[in-house]
Amino acid sequence: MPSEFERIARFVRHFPIRSRSVLAGPGDDCAVTRPRPGHVLVSKVDQLVEGVHFGPAFLPEEIGHKALAVALSDLAAAGATPRWFLVAIAHPPELDVAFLERMAKGMAHLARRAGIELVGGNFSRASELSVAVTALGEAPPARVLGRSGARPSDWILVSGTLGEAALGLRRLASGRPRRIDAAIRAQLRPTPRLELGAILGRYASAAIDLSDGLLQDLGHVCARSGVGAELFATALPVRPAVRREGLELALAGGEDYEILCTAPPQRARALLAAARRRGIPLARIGVVRATSGIRLLDERGEPMPLPVRGGWEHFA
Amino acid sequence: MPSEFERIARFVRHFPIRSRSVLAGPGDDCAVTRPRPGHVLVSKVDQLVEGVHFGPAFLPEEIGHKALAVALSDLAAAGATPRWFLVAIAHPPELDVAFLERMAKGMAHLARRAGIELVGGNFSRASELSVAVTALGEAPPARVLGRSGARPSDWILVSGTLGEAALGLRRLASGRPRRIDAAIRAQLRPTPRLELGAILGRYASAAIDLSDGLLQDLGHVCARSGVGAELFATALPVRPAVRREGLELALAGGEDYEILCTAPPQRARALLAAARRRGIPLARIGVVRATSGIRLLDERGEPMPLPVRGGWEHFA
């Protein structure tokens, strides 16, 4: 059986260090990295666990990709530039080293695209496979976004389309099909909105990535900002395949990893234009209100009933 | 069953944010922290898994303590000042919230002592309990220590005593006894050498914390520094209870979380004196040599056989 050190070596060689900001990385006990003066550090830890966040339908490359993608999605929503990451992998001793290497490949491919470098990690035995990624990014202090900046009359914008990953999860219930459609791809290979994250800080007042479902994540923004929201049902970016399953999928389906943000109208218009120029799908789906609570409005502006289920909850 | 958000709230309230370096912490998606200008970031992830790093003999407070302690130990060996940490906890849904709170208490107590603040985290379902801690510290660039700085004729120093935690593990094999002796305490409640870490950067040429056993960890320093080492068997700081079980425990027993460091003779003497003034146990146990390999010498300076087992290996 390959030793711990061989496992580390085989994993790490997929992540060559290229930037001069990394003074010590994999192979040292601690990573030593040089922050940019005048920037703040933005950090996030996310963990994927076998049977909870990924199932047998996932290829090893997809597990590696998704583990990094979900953390990058949070950095993007914060308007932070991805810099470095650490990964803690726990797995059954009998897990093949080739499996680990394929995980590394999927993760490394995304890391290169995102310009983020692996600087540390930990391997441990466990009875099930899990991958915890801590992603570190930087941003100018005035440009970091969080949940708390939304103000009444701000527009609510969302990237991409909603409910895809949740539909994909349903379609994967009976195993990995031959044909990987858009919904299944959204579940297996969520794409963090890095390009949007790179410009978001100039325009938005608050932002969050959609991991637990639109209603729940918008609810977090509203709660922290002390505001409410109106959503325009007809403006929600939902593909027909999702709409056929019911709007609940778009409102409460988790793992979209799209970005929801708010911005004052003029800045929101400028952000929509900037996104359009870059080919980033971004749509206005509602408006922030002073009155608390989230209301769904139909095409005539009349309130509609909300689906009962609020979003993904780990211990429900 | 308490919701994910209640679990987070109950855990997080044990970690009030006190420092102004934290701009966004628990409750936000990303932590936002302000690095000190002119400092580099030192980061480390460590994970404890049920049945591997802790067993039924551990109290919840001790699991929380140990999860943070092992990461702090690495920061101390790097000569870094602990600043912020993130924690990813995976656990069976039926795990009691009171258990989580007791884990938080044990972790919070150590965090306060270390001056490190919880800024982010993640809860997930899993079939077994695991805790991954990412610790972030800072240091002036010229003072960060790693594995690669040891030079021939440097003295080899080690803090505390060796083999305690491994002896403690043996004593815990039949369950938690009424009387918690020094060895059992070393296993249940390892104490990171924070005070030593705070001064180490001024004196040492290389350092590592002892997690996998003296021979293996010293071997890492030698390999990365391109040197060898001579250890003085009679100089090893070993309590009689450990010595009775055989020197192997001191040489290859894991989880001591003491600091092994090297320094040129004059600086080593100054470090020994500085440690003595602060009441930190630190002993000279050997010397760095140009010839590769680790040799154990008896009281007459004659080579002695080394124990076969090299140290802790996760997938052995």
Structural notes for this entry:
- Two copies of one chain form a homodimer.
- By secondary structure, chain A is α+β, with helices and mostly antiparallel strands.
- Chain A folds into two domains: 4-141, 60s Ribosomal Protein L30, Chain: A; 155-304, Alpha-Beta Complex (Phosphoribosyl-aminoimidazole Synthetase, Chain A, domain 2), CATH 3.90.650.10.
- Chain A is built from ten helices and 13 strands.
- The first copy, chain A, has helices at 4-12, 60-77, 97-114, 164-171, 182-188, 194-200, 214-225, 240-244, 248-252, 265-277, and strands spanning 22-24, 31-33, 40-49, 81-91, 117-125, 130-139, 155-159, 206-209, 228-232, 259-263, 282-289, 293-297, 303-304.
- In chain A, helix 1 packs parallel to helix 3, helix 2 packs parallel to helix 6 (194-200) and helix 4 (164-171) crosses helix 5.
- Chain A starts with a helix and ends in a 12-residue tail after the last strand.
- The mean pLDDT of chain A is 93.
- The interface between A and B is large, with 70 and 70 residues.
- Strand 3 (40-49) of chain A pairs antiparallel with strand 2 of chain B, so a sheet runs across the interface.
